[in-house]
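Input.
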Amino acid sequence: MIKKLKEGVYNVGAIDWDRTLFDEIVPTPQGTSYNAYLVIGKDKTALIDTVEPQKFDELKKNLEEMGIERIDYIVSNHAEQDHSGSIPMMLDMYPEAELITNEKCKGFEMDLLHIPEDKFTVIKENDEIDLGGKTLRFIMTPWVHWPETMSTYLVEDRILFSCDFFGSHVATSYTFAKYYDKVYHEAKRYYAEIMMPFRNFIEKNIKKVEALDIDMIAPSHGPVFDNPEYIINAYKEWIDPEPLNMVLIAFVSMHESTRKMVEFLADELEKRGVDVKIRNLTTADVGEIAMDLVDVATIIIATPTVLAGAHPNAVYGAYLANVLRPKAKFAGIIGSFSWGGKAVDVIKSNLSSLKVELLEPVLLKGLPKKEGYEKLKEFAQLIYEKHKEAGLIK
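Output.
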């Protein structure tokens, strides 16, 4: 589907309505799109990013339908294959095209796609290419979410082609963002899954973006934002260093002991005015857990003891939190056992990258008894006091 953004500027990418999983781990329940933008100047034509190779025929069809016989420049903002994977086929289709990118991205694409070095023209920060009445300026935006990522700014039309930055995994037939509740949810999900570990870099890159005069932000996944302040402000909210007065309890339970602990703890926290999200690690959507992690101040991993260690699903939950590196301030472990083991040690080792205060674990033998529930009450009170000391409860 060809989508016009402005005169001479088109999205000629592909929509992937059927994709349900990305990178073999990230659920994409709304599908996704691989946006590729064609910019036609008076003298030259440029294509900004390409599509997942399996969708190359759709990109090819769009260009043929528009009668594009020559492309002078293929700009690659990011080397990951869902955007760069069709570059080799595009270079076969348009052999005169120069491949424009930065030095680091060039290295990646020579390794990942086996593109010959002589196909590249390397650019640096603020370099420009004149297409004839349309000027492309290159803005380095590293670590959103790879080290080589950059954005391309179309000066006269004030459009920022931001690649993954500000993107969302959603397949849509509309060109510009609308239905904002849904847009917010999908963009936050994308931020949580892809961008959250790099929020310090994102803060710096947002400042670069805000220094530009922008009319549209055109990412490489999801709809185009013709009110760019909406998605910029959403990102500012998500990278804010202060979490909410909220606890995520990610749990797995085999014979109800751990489940009873989780439900009791959640009830005690709510009595104290602390909001709670509970996710069952055997059934929960990874993306929803990631979104919870954007906001929460405390992460609790709840696990039974299996073969002397933590349940594998609990290990996975801890590992997920560890790699996403959320802004949480506290973490805790609760769980049950029958004859002892090292469940706590296993979970602790999987939380080692988090900059959190680790609270004293509560591990109970079998189904909780009166004294066990008292320990959980004390645990809930401790969390409440920690949130209060952190200024999260007024």
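The longest helix spans residues 370-389.
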